[in-house]
Amino acid sequence: MKIFLDTADLSEIRRASDAGLIDGVTTNPSLVAKVAEGDVTVMYREICEAVDGPVSLEVVAVDRETMVAEGRKLAAIHENAVVKVPLTEDGLKACRDLGNEGHRVNVTLCFSVSQALLAAKAGATFVSPFIGRIDDISGEGMQLIHQIRQVYDNYGYTTEILAASIRHPMHVVESMLIGADCCTLPPKVLWQLSRHPLTDKGLDAFLSDWNAAGTAI
Ligand code: E4P
Fold it and tell me: Which atom of ligand 1 lies closest to the CA of 27?
């Protein structure tokens, strides 16, 4: 499964990318607003250069024509750029238009299997179901990943399932078990994946035994 980092924070992106742990990045307008203001083109280029893989950059228009115009600009920033559009009627049309021009599109804000079907029909490269936000309203976000996997497999759709709105490590584990193609993680969750109390305990014991013996490398 591909791991993407869900942030626009360059230092976090470089930290994960330098460790060779991420396959791409996803951003959204809220994440970008936390770290930037004004023209974000330079920052988007730096993010694209910091990672060897797709970087989702989201349009902010809501009509098809302007979304396509913004999408072309975003795609021109760097070859890693993937245009992100919302799962609305105009977004699906813009997805088809941009796809016809050879651009990769991530259709975001997906909350149902029927929406995911239309994203695939519109030729999306990625569809982003938001697991955490469904859980937040007492739904079962993971069930959506199951359903989309089944529908895409039943009919051979090649759109990649990009599990999004990840809140904790078990979302990642369950996404892997179901067979999501990618998962986008906030930096905190990425590093949580590496931690285990028995690893810390074991390391402490190894080092204390080593030091007690006075050995050296
Ligand atoms: C996906 O691409 C989105 O940026 C993201 O996963 C949204 O997550 P949130 O629900 O934590 O804002």
Answer: 4
| Tokens linked to 11 | 């230092």
Q: Using one digit for the tens of pLDDT, what is the confidence trace for 55-85?
A: 999 999 999 999 999 999 999 999 999 999 9
- Whether residue 37 is predicted with pLDDT greater than 90 in this model: the reply is no
Catalytic site positions: 84
How many CB atoms sit inside 10 A of residue 163's CB? 30
89 — pLDDT class (breaks 50, 70, 90):
very high
42-58: pLDDT as tens digits: 999 999 999 999 999 99
* Residue pair 21/190 in contact by the 8 Å Cβ criterion: yes
Number of domains in the chain: 1
Distance (angstroms) between ligand 1 centre and the Cα of 199 equals: 30
Cα 24 from chain centroid?
A: 7
* CATH code: domain of residue 9: 3.20.20.70
Ligand 1 contacts CB of residue 58 (under 6 A): no
